[in-house]
Model the fold of this input.
Amino acid sequence: MSEPESEDGRVATGDPQDEVDGRATLEVRGGPRRGVASATFGFFVGFAGVVLFGPVAAEFEGAMGLSGLLLGLLVAAPQLTGSLLRIPFGAWVEKTGAKKPFLVLLGLSIVGMGGLLVLLATAGADGLTMAHYPLVFLLGSLSGCGIATFSVGTAQTSYWYPSAKQGTVLAAFGGLGNTSPAIFTILVPTALAAVGLTTTYAVWFCFLVVGTAVYARYAVDAPYFQFSKRGLEDGEARRRAEARGQELFPGGDALGSIREAARIPRTWSLVALFFVSFGGFLALTTWLPSYWQSFHGLESRTAGLLTALGFTLLSAAVRIGGGALSDRIGGEGTAIASFATIAVGAAILIVAHDFVLALAATMLLGAGMGVASAAVFQLVPKYVPDAVGGASGLVGGIGAFGGFVVPPLLGLFVDLRGVSGYAAGFVVYLVLGLVALGLSSHLYRIKPVSTAEAGVPADD
Done:
């Protein structure tokens, strides 16, 4: 979209009919930059919930006497809602635009975080017992609702920008938003040592409330949704939105969007690829602090710093470049290279006892997962152009469910093999990386047929 934004943040229309119908009714509030910036900020605020328990896992493990399996489930708790809610909320965008679903998810996170804060203030961090585990798990899951803003923000970004720029802007949205877990992984252990667990969560709660208020103030839906909310018929709303540069439009109601996306086989290939890439990113962001502490004997602040800099921030940063690369050479080829990198990194971690080698391998994993995540979402509007919201929900939701499924599996290896299980558990990612490599290679081979069947011209 290329319309200039006026000083009040509205897009000049340049449509003579607007002068007849009334400028106040038909002008577009905001523009592409503001639309994507607000979505990225809101995602940043909600996505920090990924590391709600990860950096302080040792505190909960010691207080409640958790096994490896239960610890894995707890650190993954925010991913349960943060992944599955992406499906209905991503599709809800097709009906209402992104702002309302965004605010509902962030509001649920505030409720969960507030409940956890009350529990800690009343029982005390040292007073938690195994009897509190179900409630802590429930509140953690509720706090993770903000993670689901990914699919909502993805659809919002897609509707603001033309298809040719999808890979770049979606990668910028995902990459910048993904930095919040890394930042919180660094800050939370430091705050824990300085002011304790309860005060740390109190500050986080305030950040969440203020961030939600800022999003509510500045978020803007794409032109089509703005016109629809002002009472224009669907055809007229589309015509005016197209005149302002919008290319992608909702394909129907929320359930219809999910059904439309689900009937296309390539949607499920993208789901599987995202399960490995973004689901892997979520899982290891929460698990690596425990790995560094237990397997390499590092203290919590150092473990958090290594996880943030050597994995989470790295993955977020390369994701931005991965989107541009996907636009340039194609998402399929980019995915092949990145999943091969994931498999190599996992194989090294299985046998690596040396700290430097292990750090290098986690950096390989982070880079591979970041680029792969960008490549997968570059393919979503390409393969499912008539149901972007539904496809974003399925890919982002079920795919991100890897963030919930994998940590308990890694914890099970620890229960079975002791400390050595922290290394042996990476066999899970070796297998997943190889499967994803096979799937992305298949997509590359059938690319001309797939894109044609999806209603998009085949690449030259």
In short: Residues 28-453 form a domain with the Growth Hormone; Chain: A; fold (CATH 1.20.1250.20).
